[in-house]
Amino acid sequence: MASNAHNPHGRRLYLPLTPVSTPGSPPTSEPGARGRTSATVGRKPEWLKTRASVGPNFAELKRLMRDGDLHTVCEEASCPNIYECWEDREATFLVLGDLCTRRCGFCDVQTGKPLPVDPTEPDRVAEAVRRMGLRYVVLTGVARDDLPDGGAQVWAECIRAVRAVLPTCHIEVLPTDFRGLEADITTVIAAEPDVFAHNLETVARLHPKIRPAFTYDRTLEALRLAKAARAGQVTKSNLILGMGEHPDEIKEAMRDLRSVHVDLLTIGQYLQPTAHHLPVDRWVDPSEFAQLADAGRAMGFAHVESGPLVRSSYRAGRQFRAAMTAMAAMEQNENEGAGL
Q: Which end of the chain, N or C, is surrounded by fewer C-beta atoms within 10 Å?
């Protein structure tokens, strides 16, 4: 994307965000306050440091990627969990280009005018999945508000293309909210993804400033529509901590997700991609993540993956399998309770 006077680095612009305060202090919404810098909260704690652990599956996938000139979000985003996920034969691909029509204060994907849709993309993604012999694939993508359907048809074609070449591979999609249009969400669900994910990311108070092109309620509505569009459809969402939220707001967001019957929830630590992004407010202790996982299970989530290094697609296959086991057990208990 060409740079200009307002964006000299060709990156997302820094957003003036809700000022950051210590946990427990009253929320404030003074406009234009920049809050703390990431340096203020100190260096990354030890629990955010990872070590490379290269197993045979990882080494093979790495070779396939290089030989086939293939690209995954796992590598390009320098995900710290790549060794675990690739060892499980799980990977994440970005579809519909790499330029987003929206801008979020935490996201490192560039904002700009996207290129035309590549009609060969579904087949290319499917071939990459086949060559890698994946057991689970996550298809994520940029917002494409320039397209009449938000790219819904491309999402559906990608799902069907992967199914055609590797029926044993489970498919999770992580698309935009499609501006809340039921017809477009239904188009994606009709292709029968195993999991439909759409991320809430942050609490209601911070949503307008951190995700200005999205709305809190529309995100919940997209998840509700996806769940209603197909019997048994598994839905999933994500929360990022360390962006200025307060503990009571986190649980409120979790309850809101359960109100639209979201099955899977991931919760992780925000890490500032560049100096042009939202600064880190706090390093969330692992014990808080564990408490939130317990709270989420008590609320009725089929599975909660919560930890400092957790990302939406972290151990996605394991998350899915755990959720399916939990949902089957819940259904059996309900049937037994009803005397069926």
A: C
- Whole-model pTM: value is 0.82
60 Cβ contact list (under 8 Å, min separation 6)? none
Q: Could you give the domains of the chain?
A: 47-337 (3.20.20.70)
Pick left, alpha or beta for residue 189 (phi over 0 → left; psi -120 to 50 → alpha; otherwise beta): alpha
Tens of pLDDT, residue by residue over 56-93, are 766 776 776 666 555 566 665 566 667 667 677 888 88
* Distance from the Cα of residue 13 to its chain's centroid: 21
CA distances from 47 to 256, 283, 293, 308, 336 (A): 29, 10, 17, 7, 43
Q: What are phi and psi of 243, to 5 degrees?
A: -115, 15
Q: Is 92 exposed, middle or buried (0-12, 13-18, 19+ CB in 10 A)?
A: buried
Which secondary-structure segment (H or E) carries 95?
Answer: strand 90-95
First to last CA, the chain: 60
Residue 145: both structure tokens together:
């508000």
Cα-based angle 202, 190, 322 (whole degrees, multiple of 5): 55
Backbone angles phi, psi at 240, to 5 degrees: -110, 125
Both tokens of 288, joined, read: 């808080």
The angle at the Cα of 274, spanning 271 to 279, to the nearest 5 degrees, equals 55
Q: Which tokens sit at 107?
A: 């996201």
Maximum CA extent, the chain: 69
CA angle at 82 for the pair 76 and 86, rounded to the nearest 5°: 115
d(CA 218, CA 228) in angstroms, rounded, equals 15
Strand 264-269 and strand 303-306: pairing? parallel
Express each pLDDT in 45-62 by its tens digit.
Answer: 887 776 656 677 667 767
